[in-house]
Every structure is written in C-alpha cells, then in structure tokens.
Amino acid sequence: MRVAVIGASGYVGLELLRILSRHPGFEVCAVTSEQRAGVAVGDAYPSLRGIVNLDFEANDPAAIAGRVELAFCALPHAASAATVAALRRAGVRVLDTSADFRLRDVETYRAWYGAHPAPELIETAVYGLPELYREQLASTDLVAVPGCFPTSALLPLVPFLRAGLVSTDGIIVDSKTGVSGAGRALDEQFLFAELDENCFPYKVGNQHRHVPELEQEASLAAGVDVSITFTPHLLPITRGILTTLYLRPNQPISAEDAQRVLEKAYAQERFVRVLPVGQVPKLASVRGSNFCDVAAFSDLRTNNLIVLAAIDNLVKGASGGAVQSANVMCGFAEETALLEAPMVP
Amino acid sequence: MRVAVIGASGYVGLELLRILSRHPGFEVCAVTSEQRAGVAVGDAYPSLRGIVNLDFEANDPAAIAGRVELAFCALPHAASAATVAALRRAGVRVLDTSADFRLRDVETYRAWYGAHPAPELIETAVYGLPELYREQLASTDLVAVPGCFPTSALLPLVPFLRAGLVSTDGIIVDSKTGVSGAGRALDEQFLFAELDENCFPYKVGNQHRHVPELEQEASLAAGVDVSITFTPHLLPITRGILTTLYLRPNQPISAEDAQRVLEKAYAQERFVRVLPVGQVPKLASVRGSNFCDVAAFSDLRTNNLIVLAAIDNLVKGASGGAVQSANVMCGFAEETALLEAPMVP
Amino acid sequence: MRVAVIGASGYVGLELLRILSRHPGFEVCAVTSEQRAGVAVGDAYPSLRGIVNLDFEANDPAAIAGRVELAFCALPHAASAATVAALRRAGVRVLDTSADFRLRDVETYRAWYGAHPAPELIETAVYGLPELYREQLASTDLVAVPGCFPTSALLPLVPFLRAGLVSTDGIIVDSKTGVSGAGRALDEQFLFAELDENCFPYKVGNQHRHVPELEQEASLAAGVDVSITFTPHLLPITRGILTTLYLRPNQPISAEDAQRVLEKAYAQERFVRVLPVGQVPKLASVRGSNFCDVAAFSDLRTNNLIVLAAIDNLVKGASGGAVQSANVMCGFAEETALLEAPMVP
Amino acid sequence: MRVAVIGASGYVGLELLRILSRHPGFEVCAVTSEQRAGVAVGDAYPSLRGIVNLDFEANDPAAIAGRVELAFCALPHAASAATVAALRRAGVRVLDTSADFRLRDVETYRAWYGAHPAPELIETAVYGLPELYREQLASTDLVAVPGCFPTSALLPLVPFLRAGLVSTDGIIVDSKTGVSGAGRALDEQFLFAELDENCFPYKVGNQHRHVPELEQEASLAAGVDVSITFTPHLLPITRGILTTLYLRPNQPISAEDAQRVLEKAYAQERFVRVLPVGQVPKLASVRGSNFCDVAAFSDLRTNNLIVLAAIDNLVKGASGGAVQSANVMCGFAEETALLEAPMVP
Q1: In this complex, how many residue pairs, one in chain A and one in chain B, have their CB atoms less than 8 Å apart?
Q2: The domain at B2-124 falls in which architecture?
Q3: Which of A59, A216, D278, D324 stands the most exposed, by the fewest C-beta atoms within 10 Å?
C-alpha cells in the first residue's frame, strides 16, 4: 500500500520513516518538508542514508493524493487540519499526529488551540489508541493519534476507571519526559548546555494542552467527569515518558489486586506489558520500542494507589502508535513493523 | 577551629572537603578512610590535588579526638553511631550526616534500620535544618544532618503545615533525584550504561527510609500526625533533587497567596530562595550551591496545591547543610563558605 | 537454522538477541548465562519481555551442541576458547566475539592475553570483517568477530594502505568510545556519577589489547609491517565509537581524491557509507545500526590526511558484525536483520 | 577596585560573575546585556539570585568608563574591538575574552575574521596566559584572553617546544570539547536531542579559527615556525576540553623524562597540575575550576609522544584565565578567587 509522510523532517516524521522502512505492507512514496524540499532524505538526515531513497518535496496535498492511499500527517497543531481536510476530500485515509482531531468538543479545542480549521471532520475521527478503540479504528478513514502524555497516562489509568475502583476527582498525573517531545524547536531551554544535568517542571497548575485530552478520555472510560492535575517535568534525556499516577482507591486495594486489574485489562494486548508485582517500569526498557510497561503499587497506610507507566514518546507515544493504528485500519497484523526489541543498553 | 572529616572518601565526605577548603574558620586536620588510609587525598582524588594537602588515615576516634574540636562524620548508617559516641565521650562536637540520630523514636529507628547502637545520644541530637532549628543548633554538641529528600520536601512543606492550610493526610511527595545520593555504590543500576537515558521510580509504596524522618518533622511542624506517600525517582544526572509536592488545601488558595506563605516564612533566610510567581525551580539553578529554590502553584479547578523545591543533594542536602549547621554551632556567620554561586551552565 | 547464544546476558549477548529476534532465518533455541541460569530472559532483562521467550541455562557446550547448528559465543576473552573448541568438536559452527581467535600468531596472543587455550583452532578461524574477508567467511566454520576499535579503524584505513598511499609508520588512531564496550563491569570509573560530564583517555602509549589486532590486519592490507599508535578515550555515552585517523600521505592528496579512494573501495558495500565530501561521521547517525560511516579530509598545508569513521560498537563493532558474518557463512542475504534504521534522535 | 562585565549574559560573562562574586578585591559595578537591559541579573538568570544584585544595562562604554577602573569584555569577535577601543580611550584597563587582540599579525586576523576594527591596539595587547607572559601582564592595560583550545594545547606543548625536544612540523592536536564553548547559540546541532549520545568532529582540516592563534604562540615558544593540524570534536558534555597532542620527539624520550619536562616547567605554577607518571587528565577532575591537568606518555615503539591536558573551558579556558590575568595586572595574589575546588562528582 502506497503511503505518504507529510511533515517528514520533524522528529515524529523521521521516526515514521524509521518504522515504515521495515514495514512489508506500506511503501513510502512521498515525503514532504517545506524546509528541505528538493533535498534527498539521506543528505538532510544522514542516519537514513541508504535506508530511505526519496527526495523531500513541498506539501501539496492535491498532488500527493493522487499517488497514495494513506497518509501519515505529522504537521504542527492547527497547520495540520487543512492538509488533513484536503487529503480526506481526495479520498486519502489519514493518520494525524497533531492535536487537531483529538478533542471531540470544538469549544474545548478553541479554548486551548484557537478556532478549529476543519470542525466538520471532528466527528469522523477515531482516537488512535487501539487498546481502547480497536473496533472503531478498523473502519475509520481518519485517526487522531493520541498525545504522548495521554498515551502514557491513559493506559495505566483506564482499567481502574472502567472498574470504578478509584476516585475520579483530582487524579494526580506526574509525568517525566524526554526532550524529543518538543521536537527540534530552537528554544534556549532545549540546548544541551541548558538541559544537561537539569530537571524542572513546566506548565504547572494544569496549563498543558494535554489536560483536556486526558480528561476527555478518562471521563469516557469512567462514565462520569474525571478531573486531573497534570504536571509534566522535563528530563535530560532524549526519548521516553515515565508517568506516575496517584489514585485514591474507593476501597483499599493491595498492590497484588491492583496488578491483577492491569493484567486482566491487558492480557490480550501485545504492546502493554504488565510487569511482575514489585518490578517498576523503566524508560530504558522501552527505548525505541512500541511497548508500554505498566505496574501498580499500593500504599495502604495512606490509601494511595501508585500506578506507573513507561513509553518511548516517539514510538508508542507518536509514530509507533500511528503505525499500530494504521495496521488496524488496513488489515495488517497489528504488530507489523512494531516488534523491534527495545535498544538496551 | 580544628576539625576532622570522618569517612572523607565518600561523595559526602569529599564534598565536605570541597566546601571546607574555602572556609576561613575551620581547618581540616584529619581525614579518614578505611580504604584509602595512608594515601594522599590528592593522589586518590585528583580533583583535590593542590587543594587538600593531607593523607587519609584509618578511623580511630580516640586518636582523632585529641586533635580536633569538631568532627563531621560521614559514615554509613549504623556504622556512624559508634564513632559518634566515641567522639562525644571525648568531648568533640559532632555533625553526623548518617541517619543515626535523625529519628527521635528509637523504636521507629529499629523498624527501619535495626537496633540503635547509641540510643542514649538520641535525646541530645538536634535536627540540622537551621531554617527550623536555628536556636537549638547554636547550643548543641550533636547535630543530625537531615536526609537529602527530607530537606527538599520539608522546606517547601513546613510553612503550609505550620499555617494549618493543608490536609495532613496522605500528602504526596514525588521526588526526582540524581544518582550521587547513592554514593559510590557498585550496583549495576548505577552504571553509566544502565542509567544514561533512563529514569525510574524505586522503593515505591513508602518503602524508603526517609518516610519516617519526613513524617516526624512534618508532624512536629503541623502539631498533629501527618502521613505522607513518598515516591523517589532516579534521574540520569549526578547532582540534584527536585521535589514536587501535591497538597490539598483546606480552603482554596491562589498561587499568589501560596507564594506569599513561602515568602513570609523565608524572608530572612539566606539559602531558601522563593522564586517570583510563575517561575519554576530548576536543578541547574542550584547546582553546586547551598540554595533551596521553592515555588508554589495552584490548580483551583481540582483544588490541588503544587509546591516545588530544588536542591543540590550533596550541598544543601548533605555537606553544605552540615557546614551551615556547624556555622551556627560555632558562631560563624551562617553563610560562611556557602555563598558560592551555582555552577551554570 | 537453530542457533545458540552463549554468554547471552552481557551487552554483546543481549544485543545478539535483539538483532536475532528480527532474523527470519535464525531461530534462537538456547541462551546461556551462569549468573542467570534458570531465569526467564524477560524477567532478568525486562526490555526483552515479550520478545525472547526462553530461559537462560548454564553453559554446557556438549548439551547445546545437540540442539543447534550454529552458535554465537559472547564469553570473555580466554574463557571463550574452551567453549568454542567443545562446540567445534561437536560440529557446531561458531562465531566468537571474544579476542581468542583474532590474532594469527600464538606468541602475540600469549604476550597480550596469556597462554592460548586452543591454539590448534587459530588457523581455521577467519577474521569476521566481510568487507575484507567475504569469500573466506562463506566457507569457514569459525569466525573471530573483530574488536570494536579495529572495526572502526580498519574500515577507513585499509583502502589507503592497500593503495599504498600513506606512510605505514606510526599511524595515529585516536578513538572515542561509549562505555558499553566495557560491558557491565562493576568498576567505579563506569558509574554514572563518575563518567557523566567526564572524558579521559586510557591505556595511553599502546597498552590496549587491540593494538596487535590492528597492526596485524593493517599489515596484511599494506603488505608490509604497519605500526600504529592507538589512544582510546572514554566518553559519557553508552554506544558508539568515533575514530579519527591521522595519516601521512606519501604524495599530497586532496580531500576529494581521498574520498574517492573510500568510494571506490566501498561502492558495493551495504554497510559502509562514504559520506559526501565535507560531511563528518557522527555517532548519532549510526546509533543502533550496523552502518559504518566514513569520510576523509586533507590538511595539505601540513600534509596530514584525516580519515574518520563512526560505528555503533555493539552493532557493527560486535553483534551486528557477527550476524553479518553469520549471514555470509549460512548463505542468507548479507543484510538480513541488519538494515534497521539508526535510532535518531 | 570597581569593575564592569561587558556582555555579561553569555556563558563567559555569567562565569565571570560567578567567579568575581567571590573575589575580595574586585567589585562588579556594571553588567551589560543588550537583550536583557533593564532586567535584574537574578530574574534573568535564577542561579545568580541572591548573589549578584545588579540590573543589566545596555553597553555604553563612555558611561561605564566613568564608573570603573577595569572592564572584562565578553562580547563576540569583531563586535568586541570597538568597545575595547572606547574603554581604552577612556583610560579603563581591559581584559577582552574575544579573539580580537590575540593575533599579532593584522593580516592573519583579516584572513580569518575580516578587517580589524582597531588595529592600532594590537601592539599594546598582551596574550593572557600568565604561565607564559606573567611579567608583561603585570604592566599592560589590555589583555587578550586566550582561546579555550589554545589554552588547553599550549600549556602541555610549550615546554617541549622551548626545550627543542620535538618536531615542529605537523604537530597533531586532537581536542574534545564540551558544548558550552559555543555559547548559547540557537543552532540545531546544539540541541539536547541532537547532541546527547552523540560525538563528532568539526572544522576538520584546519578550518578552525584557533589554528593561527595556536601556531603563533607555538612558533614564539619554539623560536621557529610551527605547523599544527587541529581537529576539534564536540562531546555530549557541557564543560571541559580534553586535548591529546601527538608529538614526534627528535630523540626518543621516555614517559618519565617527558613528565620531568612538564614538572620542571610548572613547578612554581599554582594552576597547572602535572599528574604522577601514568595518571591521565580527566575532565571531571578540573570541572568548575581554574586548573589545567597535564601528563605525558611515550610510545617508544612508534616514537610518538602523547601529551594530554584537561581544562574547564569556561574557567581556565576563558573567565578564570581572565581573572587570573586581572589578578596579575592589579597586583592581587594570582590565585585570588580561583582556588575553588573542582566540583566532583
């Protein structure tokens, strides 16, 4: 199946190329980059020399639509929707890694991102977390690939919400992220000399745009409104999100029972690995892979339940998750091109 | 004033030598190390070549007692108490960086560390946080230097507890620490290839020995029992602890009002820097220094108060804090040798 | 084809498992580890949970020989030869990642490593650099997988020696390596807190065991004795070797002409990427991959030719190189399981 | 003595503030920054909160000249000379950390940097390496602070050149540097995600502007023209330069004898530490300090002499070196404010 990667020179785009280069069913036929149009992929990004033999082209949805059946769109928020709309009009199925189609409520979108450029498409989009929406993904033409933080928080959280085991009020999500989530943004705080040996929180007090996304999906899982306090922290690493959830159980629950909730929820899932009781998720153990490692711990004395998850933000949290959904959409085995072992050490 | 550093070859001991080398009032006359006895400090630790011109000697408290008035004891937990007791018997004033004299209740000590080797001294020890116990420190002969995590959590927490503004039940302390807190332990997980690009929690579910210390001091500040859920996370950095506290205010409180609580508490403190509203503490901003940067944020929607602190675990969290207490004990200006600017970048 | 990985719990062994898990032609049927015998691979090394479904077993060459046709032996130097000999006696073809069969001269081996445990096999071994010995590899039963430093130095160097373009006297090889080359050795200098933000040379003055290997292969390429000064430097990174060669051309040679020498030598090679003139090899561009990126620069003013190479020491420099040779030995396409794109960022 | 720091918001400027904050003889009265004019130093750079209580002002040499006797000028190359000239005209003594007054030959300056903005001052400048020019520094009014790479290469090299022990032709200088030498430049290659786990050479083939400076000072030391091949490599660290020199001795020389050359040259120097025979300089051992650690190794077999040096590029390689020269100029003890122990770990 012929596919395009729109916005292929950002980190998410390059990671899509890395993953798709080993996919037997998708053939990448077009890669776009405004900045790099006309340049060979391997000249601009030497890691892909000898792997991807294409030139970047400018983003022209109409022209690309004629050449591919499916497109991965890795453009920035707000910029993405117009391209997605053009591709959809031309009949191309789309996986969009931006935030443009994640929020179901156009007013919420407006509050966090501004006026929505293609509100008519929102209803047609499916939230691209196969562990939650596998059936809907199989038949959709538009996938909203989830944000990296929501992926890392929802996978460990949803089973407890669905089971009604925890308070839905003021759930605490404390995330630690590598810097690649910020892309290649030329911002002083992302310089090596500034971030090295450093760590700090940002957008503290629920100012991060992933909050409405988190609350939307958590509420759908719980069947009632869920409120979340989310604090992301930047780490001096490139890849990975470690999320620590603090939940208040409605009834005291042991670590073993909490683990069992996770095990039951994910027994059939290939990419969510429930660790043995007592083992903690580590970023290194998922590096470069599509896995999400999860585990639960209980502090019965204070009645706090601590649930943990680790993902690679560029794989399970973006490009790998997108390919996983694409596999579901297109009828490939869901794990195709996604079972590469994590890179350790 | 002639001083000794007992256990001088560990990270805390070396950091004491680094700080004391610029102290005009303390002269280091004895440095001990079982492993390095007989070796010149500068030969064993080349960074100190030309700075510290002493040989390590074996730890013989009786012999050392005759040569110094004050000792910094940086031995491991449990091993420390015997040396401290010997030094005290010989009339030497002691600052102990181990956990041996931090817990006031000998039964709590037993539960976490085993039988106490010198229980008779517990009552005489003062908890070495000058911001809380300045007056008592001025006249004590034995200081229990606080743990690094408690230092990072108590400074931002205590003002809210003293003011009775927050729930004392199930306070959440989510800490992120550099690896130097583990010392030079030869454990696989501390190898560069294992920790680099990695991050993970440990001792989840209140298994960390700093929990009883935290709860003891928090309870004393609150005047009632405080319970805490503490989750430390290991970062791929060498120095620094960033602590994120999640507090539930008894009455909704704005970020500005919460900041004011901190500002009022620390207006006269030289080493606690309350940041301007909206600015977050960063590990880099305190690196190598005795500062503790604090700030408060409010999530009124979920009624969570997020209070943050950053310290250098080896300075304010150990050796610098010890020297600060020693300055108070010995009548030096409290900031002597401790106003070195953080190393940025 | 059924294969074993002997010594599978070290970094080279685990990397073999990572690579072989995507190989359609090799089925790993036995993995050994003395330390971990009886433990499931995924329990001991969580990154491989869900990827490798085997238990470690103790190393018993006789028992293993009955179950496999081919073995990758990743034991330490000197320990390896006995296992290799036993496997060979039982008819198993072997790729040995230790140094035991790299040196053709048993006296040289003795000088650097001690008495050779299986000297009779030395003659039968082929040096596992397919770019140099492809034909011999196709029919051998024993491969000596090259050292990581020699791989990084020989690929850029040999074309110039073969063409007789540079002095063979006192060639300077300045290498910078990640720490994974040292394995999981519990040595203080490899602790995160010691290596982080650090860099230093070691075994300066030709004390490194890779010197005789380098000189042996360089001399074979040149047809005359080549002498080399080799200085390795340890970097605060996990993977990768960057080698900077300083050569003295017999006749002045431009950068363009020097590049052409490399291009001609490697036109048909899949894994040696000669960069465009002026582009430098970077460790990040080969991370996790089997590529060796090379480039040449000329300083005509001082008549020094600078030739550069970057590899991932665990892939092209060890496990990937081993699989590449195994592919040649066993008649698989040489790039099978080895074209995974480098992990960037 | 009242001093100004011109260009105080770059890394070199901030490091000057860090060092001068502990200097008993210099009082910083003016700090300039075009970008930050009007902002308090501690608001812009939180590490200096509570340490430097000044506001940044715009750079107005005439206005500043009336308020200070001495100025440290940390402006970029070419931009610096005009300010230096204005300050000098007003009678202010200047230490300039740019390259503008390092090269004695105005034509060489033109070839590497463009037309010189104040050629008349070149003759009055002294090269600010007290180990080489102490006497001249004592009476000059203008100091050209050396480049970081030249500092790291000249200190280990000059003793061998002065003694006429090594070939002056094609000396190889292979340097490894932290990224802070590039300042806070917003260049993609300096982003954390790009440099982390990466290493690469740049300006290969003597394209780096420090080459003419290196050759000028090496030639002056040797008394004949010296030619140098210089290859800098970028490391994933913030501070430090490790330089590996490859010299060809005129007569074979043992490591011990080579060390003795260094020991003799630096016996009276406080900041050049000649390590014991066999010990290698490490970046960590000089971190944050004004020390330069040096050592020599010999490869008698290939007749290569390997001489090594480690410095902190922001201290001995820039701001610390500047303060050291200022101490000499102003009659303070040379080590004033510069004996702070390296920060280890």
Answers
A1: 153
A2: 3-Layer(aba) Sandwich (3.40)
A3: D278
